[in-house]
Design goal:
This protein is α+β, with helices and mostly antiparallel strands and about 250 residues long. The chain folds into two domains: about 90 residues, Phosphorylase Kinase, domain 1; about 120 residues, ATP-grasp fold, B domain (D-amino Acid Aminotransferase, Chain A, domain 1). The protein is about 25% helix and about 30% strand. Strands 6, 7, 8, 9, 10 and 11 form a six-stranded antiparallel beta sheet that branches. A five-stranded antiparallel beta sheet has the order 1-2-3-5-4, covered by helices on one side. A hairpin with a 3-residue loop joins strand 1 and strand 2. The longest helix is centred in the middle third of the chain and has 24 residues. The radius of gyration is 18 Å and the shape is globular. About 35% of the residues are buried. The C terminus is likely disordered.
Length: about 250
């Protein structure tokens, strides 16, 4: 489709004005990643094509089970049509296994199953390195209400159930992932929806098919974009590259 007015450009995506009121065209770039990792700023050939397909797969699946998302349809190899939403400036992270920051903060060995999924909040500000915040900060500074937080947790846990089941079915363990939540208005009624994307850029994935020593830490998936797309059956025929995984903080 013809290129339209650019609305916003981030590390991994560009948003353009949509063809209809209340819509945007989301373009997936190869450059950078959606989260802060040692690989930030590196371009990976074909990553945008794969993330477009993978996010379509996950968002469509969530829509089909009644979890509202901003996704409408995929337009081409790199673009999808999405609903315009007011993004809440909080990243919601769901952790199923100890890894990364939670292992470092609490001294829990990486790979340890958590007693239950743990939901954490991070304030979206790259200049501050997206600091972790508590519910009290979110409510006090007006980023979201208590009802919003309750709804965000409920959404995040439903997404976790769906993603964990899908990943388990193809031999992948979902250690943790990040979500962005947006507000949309339908007349006088406001509701929260899953926005942005769901892709390897925002997930920590471990390969369950790799044989490891009992005392070894979990194996990170190598070539994660290509391998995940292949296992889920959404691998574009013209993408043959392999890459290393990117993990959420």
């Amino acid at each position: 489709m013809a290129r339209r007015k650019k609305i916003y450009e981030g590390k991994a995506k560009i948003l353009y004005e949509g063809p209809e009121p209340g819509t945007l065209v989301q373009y997936f770039k190869d450059d950078g990643v959606a989260v802060v990792t040692p690989q930030e700023g590196l371009g990976v050939e074909g990553k945008g094509v794969l993330n477009n397909r993978l996010s379509e797969f996950f968002m469509s699946g969530l829509n089909s089970i009644g979890v509202p998302t901003h996704f409408i349809r995929r337009l081409n190899m790199r673009e999808q049509l999405v609903r315009m939403a007011e993004i809440i400036p909080i990243e919601v992270v769901v952790r199923n296994f100890a890894a990364g920051p939670i292992s470092e903060r609490l001294g829990i060995p990486e790979g340890t199953p958590l007693p239950r999924p743990i939901v954490e909040y991070y304030y979206k500000d790259d200049k501050l390195a997206n600091p972790m915040v508590a519910e009290e900060h979110i409510i006090a500074f007006g980023w979201a209400s208590q009802q919003d937080l309750d709804d965000m947790v409920a959404l995040a846990l439903r997404v976790n159930d769906f993603l964990s089941g899908v990943m388990m079915g193809v031999g992948i363990r979902l250690a943790d992932f990040r979500l962005e939540i947006g507000r949309i208005w339908e007349g006088d009624f406001m509701r929260l929806i899953v926005a942005d994307e769901i892709s390897p850029d925002s997930c920590r994935l471990w390969d369950m098919r790799q044989v490891e020593r009992p005392d070894a830490p979990p194996a990170e998936m190598t070539d994660v974009y290509t391998e995940l797309a292949r296992r889920l059956g959404v691998m574009p025929s013209n993408v043959t590259h392999t890459t290393k995984p990117t993990l959420i903080n």
